[in-house]
């Protein structure tokens, strides 16, 4: 048995973790743009990355280390992705780290921002040299990694085990646009003092990614830098596999929901629940098609319960389906029932009221089996176009 309790605070509350964020001159508005996570002891580290074929230099640099390596330092910058920068992008990371007079063990870099520009090395080196590695300022770190985010994204949990021991796990993340199933334009750093093996960390990340970060969509795009990184220093000497897997799932789900809710001007978050599909795979295909559909997203923005867009998207996904078995509902309001046109003015009004909420569920019962999957998406409106039209400026 175990108990998982949400707690307030940032990752600096976890024993042995230090962090901070500063302005190093990358963002012209003076906001934080460079941060770090540090531990005096080496941490086990595992990560999952974007499926974009053009992975950024920081991802390649990470993967140049030996399998199951340990680290004690992560440097994170915003405003510059260091992507599509060739071999020099990787060399710049090595140059940066070799310029720092810190006791670093296999240092890691993570970047987010504009693709195709070389790293501003002088600014990064000068900024990093000013770090106080004894700082515990998770709030400033959370601001440093933001790009188009409207707000910082963090969460924390304490896990109490049956033998009286406990560990903490928490995360800091950024992500608001270019978010598509198969990670997102996101960086997420999860820290824990659990005494967890590198193998269990790898397994837990992979098991929990499908229902969290790989189940959200803002705009159907996948970037070059997407990263979910898990760091464990073992300082608590506490561990239980079931408890750890569940706590990590909660952290990843919290971060994923914060990202989709912050979808560059988004006002609505919808859970697209597909049930009774012929297989789980079919359910996943249909749910992700719904969360990605621009027509569906704009209908959500207009608070229009246009079930035709829902049905059309399911049909276009090419999963096994039959309009005589399909049932579509907005929360508990059924708008289409096995070929029966039940979309009366009264039903439309009720469904429209559901869409006026900030969060709701759209359920599609395929009626052919027992497969199920839930994907998460948001509306798409004018603000998204405005942000992305002006992104480089």
TrEMBL record:
Alphabetized InterPro entries for the sequence: Arg_biosynth_ArgJ (IPR002813), ArgJ-like_dom_sf (IPR016117), ArgJ_beta_C (IPR042195)
Marked site (Cleavage) residue numbers: 184-185
Top-level taxon: Bacteria
GO cellular component, one term: cytoplasm
One term of GO molecular function: L-glutamate N-acetyltransferase activity, acting on acetyl-L-ornithine as donor
Keyword Cytoplasm: yes
Annotated localization: Cytoplasm
Record site: Involved in the stabilization of negative charge on the oxyanion by the formation of the oxyanion hole: 112-113
Major localization listed first in the record, in broad terms: cytoplasm
Enzyme class: transferase
Binding residues for substrate: 147, 174, 185, 264, 388, 393
Keywords, comma-separated and alphabetical: Acyltransferase, Amino-acid biosynthesis, Arginine biosynthesis, Autocatalytic cleavage, Cytoplasm, Multifunctional enzyme, Transferase
A GO biological process held by the record: L-arginine biosynthetic process
CDD domains: OAT (cd02152)
Keyword NADP: no
Job of this protein: Catalyzes two activities which are involved in the cyclic version of arginine biosynthesis: the synthesis of N-acetylglutamate from glutamate and acetyl-CoA as the acetyl donor, and of ornithine by transacetylation between N(2)-acetylornithine and glutamate.
Record note on quaternary structure: Heterotetramer of two alpha and two beta chains.
Protein name, per record: Arginine biosynthesis bifunctional protein ArgJ
Organism annotation: Malaciobacter pacificus
Gene assigned in the entry: argJ
């Amino acid at each position: 048995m175990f108990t998982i309790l949400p707690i307030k605070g940032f990752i600096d509350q976890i024993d042995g973790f230090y962090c901070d964020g500063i302005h190093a001159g990358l963002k012209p508005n003076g906001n934080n743009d460079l941060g770090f996570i540090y531990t005096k002891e080496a941490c086990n580290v595992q990560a999952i990355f974007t499926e974009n074929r053009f992975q950024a230099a920081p991802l390649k640099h990470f993967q140049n280390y030996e399998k199951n390596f340990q680290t004690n330092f992560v440097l994170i910058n915003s405003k510059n992705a260091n992507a599509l920068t060739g071999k020099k992008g990787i060399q710049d990371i090595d140059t940066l780290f070799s310029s720092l007079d810190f006791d670093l063990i296999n240092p890691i870099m993570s970047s987010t921002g504009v693709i195709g520009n070389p790293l501003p090395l002088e600014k990064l080196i000068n900024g990093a040299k000013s770090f106080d590695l004894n700082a515990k300022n998770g709030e400033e770190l959370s601001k440093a990694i933001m790009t188009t985010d409207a707000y910082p994204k963090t969460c924390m949990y304490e896990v109490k085990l049956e033998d009286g021991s406990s560990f903490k796990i928490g995360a800091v993340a950024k992500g608001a646009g270019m978010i598509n199933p198969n990670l997102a334009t996101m960086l997420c750093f999860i820290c824990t003092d659990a005494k967890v093996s590198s193998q269990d960390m790898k397994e837990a990340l992979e098991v929990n990614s499908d229902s969290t970060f790989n189940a959200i969509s803002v705009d159907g795009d996948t970037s070059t830098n997407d990263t979910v990184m898990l760091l464990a220093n073992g300082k608590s000497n506490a561990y239980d596999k079931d408890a750890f897997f569940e706590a990590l799932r909660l952290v990843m789900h919290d971060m994923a929901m914060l990202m989709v809710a912050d979808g560059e001007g988004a006002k609505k978050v919808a859970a697209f629940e597909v049930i009774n599909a012929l297989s789980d795979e079919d359910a996943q295909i249909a749910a992700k098609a719904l969360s990605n559909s621009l027509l569906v997203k704009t209908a959500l923005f207009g608070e229009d319960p246009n079930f035709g867009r829902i049905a059309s998207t399911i049909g276009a996904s090419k999963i096994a389906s039959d309009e005589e078995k399909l049932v579509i509902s907005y929360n508990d309001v059924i708008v289409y029932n096995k070929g029966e046109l039940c979309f009366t003015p009264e039903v439309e009004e009720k469904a429209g009221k559901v869409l006026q909420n900030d969060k709701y569920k759209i359920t599609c019962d395929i009626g052919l089996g027992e497969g199920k999957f839930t994907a998460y998406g948001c509306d798409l409106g004018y603000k998204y176009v405005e942000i992305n039209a002006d992104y480089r400026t």
